[in-house]
Amino acid sequence: MDQQFLLSKRYGVVTGAASGIGRATALHLAEIGATLTLIDLDAEGLTSVAVQIEAAGRTTPHIVVTDICDETEVKIAVQAAFTHLGSIDFLVNCAGILRRTSFLEIETEEWDLVMNINLRAQYIFCREVLRHMKDSGRGVIVNVASLAGRTSSVLGGAHYTTAKHALVGLSRHLAREFAPHGIRVNAFCPGATLTPMVQTTTSQEEIDHVTAVTPRGCMADPMEQAHVIGFLVSDASANIIGACIDSNGGALMV
Ligand SMILES: NC(=O)c1ccc[n+]([C@@H]2O[C@H](COP(=O)([O-])OP(=O)(O)OC[C@H]3O[C@@H](n4cnc5c(N)ncnc54)[C@H](O)[C@@H]3O)[C@@H](O)[C@H]2O)c1
Predict the structure, then answer these.
(1) What pLDDT is attached to residue 70?
(2) Phi, psi of 143, rounded to the nearest 5 degrees
């Protein structure tokens, strides 16, 4: 593979790495040479992805069990990553939760939870990591938003859609402010992808419906999304800044 697509001697953080798209991203980034700190609430899931990366002969990742809702825990996790890796060249903000509650049924507590995990945590991670990146004069951030960050989606409640739209806005702002410092920020907007998030919140009937209205005729595999994230982290995407990159099988054509 062309060197610009590879991540050798690149050090970075992936959140939500225990499951789904984050897990596939951790496996793929390790495969193309990155050294990783993996963050998630799920200790067992993190350990299993670390074992899988090690078994594939790649650099064993550093894992930090963190509740990304907790600002102090996030600060400690980012500091631990910096101390362990020596540099944070990239951040993939992938952790998230999906709630599909109808608008009038959403309690304020649930609204706050979805906002905290899908938006506030990403803001705190970006802030903490950007301090290191600004010092080093380089870096890449990929914020995993959603098709629900581009339009209203049946796979997401109003809180989820609002948080994901805001995450796209945050990414665009950071891209403008930090590009002069050599730092690239982009939002990534996956469409329906077969992960535990979808499998645990969506009936087979709904999955069939989403599949039927997707021009490609199927949901994405998490590794397909990981490949796009790998490209966005790599130097091959050096000219992509402040973009919102879709990967949705044609579900949104604009
Ligand atoms: N699967 C899809 O169809 C789809 C579509 C668009 C966007 N996305 C986005 O992709 C990202 C990954 O989704 P996925 O489908 O892989 O989901 P997933 O549920 O398989 O994985 C999400 C991970 O986030 C972690 N997480 C949740 N809350 C956390 C917390 N408080 N602290 C630390 N970690 C926490 C979970 O433990 C889990 O490992 C999310 O941001 C999601 O919104 C998914």
Answers:
(1) 98
(2) -95, 120
